[in-house]
Each structure stands twice: as structure tokens, then as C-alpha cells.
Design brief:
There is one protein chain. This protein is an alpha/beta fold. Helix content is 46%, strand content 15%. It is built from 15 helices and 10 strands. The strands form 3 sheets. A 5-stranded mixed beta sheet has the order 2-1-3-10-4. The termini are far apart.
Length: 352
């Protein structure tokens, strides 16, 4: 009898999961029907193959790509795409230069530095229009603005995007690094929780979720509130791909934009699809929290998904030159292209 109950329980869970998958599939199909009607006259007949290399494990910051894969948006564009998650050691910038069927996702400064070192890559759209770098302080502290950093212990990760943005913010505010105490930290947030540092360098939504889970009150200091505006992560590919396989980029970008649209217009569909990549780690609560926290960085007021602009790139290059991470300016007209974004939005009346 007990064995029968266990078997029934397992069968019941399978039925429930199948029902959820079916419902998600129906909603995604309905979205695709709307997208087909307004965005493209018909699905391409020829299949193009692509590898998409991420610079970190699967998480909501790649929701556009993940949703495009799970909801059939890549297939709708005539693409067969393999998403490859990365790690802290992943060099997505160099990996995309290997062939003309690879697209990468990497932070903009890594891309610009890679280009300066001779890697022939081109950015064709933004994932994060604004950098996700933020700084955390404890709610109980009196630290609310960068001017409150004076004399405080500031977590510092040399060579990371948080360090670049931190230095740029101080420079923007004419603050010397000599008036603070920089403490070298890693990715483990424990020193901040233990009171060993007063300001924690992190990313929107990521560290905030850890603090939320532990019931720790916190403040967020956003560099963009103090005039530091640079691109976050970007979609990039090899010069060779732009030249020899532009249709691959056009199709990919249309699918990813549709993926981001679906992500934020229908949580009931997008959250289960994102969770399906790693159900143990990507819980619905984490996904919803991260999506909400990153939304304004993906699509700031007045911008559309994927759109970056010259001022952000010029600002980033100036920062890298000032910090002597770049020896000479990079020719931005050859490093960044806007052609595919213009084409994607011109062809779609609903992606606005």
C-alpha cells in the first residue's frame, strides 16, 4: 500500500509537471504567433547554426537568450543555437574570434580591452545598457553617498569591473583614493556581513538577493546616479562573422529582443522557462527578484532592449585611458556597430 502511494505520488508529480510544461508551451506559442504576425512575414527556410558563449553560469542576466532558446524564438528565426554557460575563468571575448558561427556575451570593458589587444571582435547590441555595478552598505550604517566613504573601509577587487567603476566614480566626484581605506576582497560577501568592510562592491540584484535571504538591511549606491554611465554586458562577434555571416547576427538579435520582451511581459511563462536551465539553483523567488532588480539597467527610460549609444562607449574608453588600462584609444567606429539594431527595430513594429 505504501509502495503504491509512493508510485502514485511520483506519477502525480509527472502529470503536474507535464501540465505546467504544456501550459508554458501554449503561452509561448501564442506569443510567437503575435510576433510572427507583426515582426516578420515568414520564418526563414534555411537553418543557420550558432554557438552562443556566455561569460557566466546560466542566470537571469541571460534571460533574453535563455527564453529565446526555450520558447522557440531561435527556431522561428531559422537558427539552431547552442547556449554554452561560462565561469569566472571564461574569456568569451577571445572565444568568439575562433569561427564565424560564434556569438559572445561579455562585459563591455573586457570587450574593449580585448579589441585593443588585437582580438578582432565587434559589439552589435547591449545586454545591460547600463553597467550593473553598484555598492552596498548596511542599512544601520551612516553611509548613503560616496561622500560618506571618507575614512571607511572599501571593498576592492583589483582588475574587476567593480574596481574600474569605483575609481571612475571617485574621479568624477574629485575624491582621492587616499582618503579611504581599500580592503582587497573576493566574491564571498562574508567580510561585509562580519563588519570587516563598510562598503561592498557588487552587482545589482546579485549581492542584494544574498542580503535579502539573510534578512540583512542594506543601502545601494548606484554610480550612474553620480554621472558614471558606461555599457554593461554586450553581445559581440568576430569581424569575420559581421562580414561573412551577417544574416546570423540579424536573426539572433531579433530572437533575443523577442526573448527579452517575453521575459518581462509574461512572468508566468518566463520564470519557469528560466528555472528549467537549473531548477535547483534558479528558484522562482530568485529569478523574479533578479529580473526586477536588473530591469532598469537592461532598458533604461527612453531606451529599447539592446540599444547602446556613442556617449556610453566614449565614457568607458575615457575611463580606461585615465586608469591606464588602455594605452591608446580604440577606433570605436570599427569596434561597435549599430546596423543590426537599426535593422531589428525597423523590421518590427511592436518592439518599441
Amino acid at each position: 500500500m505504501r509502495h503504491r502511494k509512493r508510485a502514485y505520488g511520483r506519477a502525480g508529480r509527472r502529470i503536474i509537471l507535464a501540465g505546467i510544461a504544456s501550459a508554458v508551451g501554449l503561452v509561448a506559442a501564442a506569443y510567437l504567433l503575435r510576433f510572427r504576425t507583426s515582426a516578420a512575414p515568414s520564418a526563414p527556410k534555411s537553418i543557420l547554426y550558432a554557438t552562443v558563449r556566455l561569460d557566466a553560469p546560466f542566470d537571469p542576466s541571460f534571460a533574453g537568450e535563455m527564453i529565446a532558446a526555450r520558447a522557440g524564438l531561435f527556431e522561428h528565426e531559422g537558427l539552431s543555437v547552442e547556449l554554452k554557460p561560462g565561469s569566472a575563468e571564461t574569456d568569451a571575448v577571445r572565444q568568439v574570434s575562433d569561427d564565424n558561427q560564434t556569438i559572445g556575451v561579455a562585459n563591455a570593458q573586457s570587450m574593449l580591452l580585448g579589441r585593443a589587444s588585437g582580438v578582432p571582435v565587434v559589439a552589435f547590441a547591449a545586454a545591460y545598457v547600463e553597467s550593473p555595478v553598484v555598492f552596498y552598505t548596511l542599512e544601520k550604517s551612516a553611509i548613503r553617498t560616496p561622500s560618506d566613504f571618507v575614512g571607511k573601509r572599501i571593498g576592492y577587487r583589483p582588475g574587476q569591473d567593480t574596481a574600474i567603476i569605483y575609481q571612475a566614480m571617485l574621479a568624477k566626484l574629485l575624491m582621492s583614493r587616499s582618503i579611504v581605506h581599500e580592503v582587497k576582497v573576493g566574491s564571498d560577501i562574508t567580510p561585509f556581513l562580519n563588519g570587516e568592510v563598510d562598503v561592498w562592491p557588487g552587482h545589482a540584484g546579485v549581492d542584494a538577493y544574498i542580503l535579502k535571504q539573510r534578512g540583512v538591511g542594506y543601502n545601494i549606491i548606484s554610480p550612474d546616479s553620480y554621472g558614471v554611465h558606461v555599457p554593461g554586458s554586450v553581445y559581440l562577434t568576430a569581424e569575420r562573422t559581421i562580414r561573412e555571416n551577417p544574416q546570423l547576427i540579424r536573426r539572433f538579435l531579433r530572437a533575443v529582443i523577442a526573448g527579452w520582451e517575453l521575459t518581462y511581459t509574461d512572468y508566468a511563462t518566463s520564470i519557469p522557462l528560466i528555472a528549467s536551465f537549473d531548477a535547483d539553483r534558479l528558484t522562482p523567488d530568485l529569478i523574479r527578484f533578479r529580473l526586477e532588480q536588473q530591469r532598469a539597467l537592461l532598458r533604461p527610460l527612453g531606451a529599447r532592449f539592446g540599444e547602446f549609444d556613442d556617449t556610453h562607449w566614449q565614457s568607458l574608453q575615457s575611463i580606461l585611458l585615465q586608469q591606464r588600462l588602455l594605452k591608446d584609444p580604440v577606433e570605436l567606429s570599427k569596434t561597435v556597430t549599430y546596423d543590426f539594431l537599426r535593422d531589428a527595430y525597423r523590421r518590427s513594429g511592436r518592439l518599441e
